[in-house]
Write a structure and sequence with these properties.
By secondary structure, this protein is an all-alpha fold. It is built from 1 helix and no strands. The chain has one domain.
Amino acid sequence: FPKTFTTTWTTSATSTTISTASATALTTASATALTTASATALATAFVTTA
């Protein structure tokens, strides 16, 4: 019982860590892409207007 419990708990903890890391990376990537897109659109609008 203890060994099984420990293994399950460790696996669960690892999965949680990986999920959190993935979510963080995804959020960062999205934010970066959004910022880049905004900057590009802003620059384009500025150049077009000017």
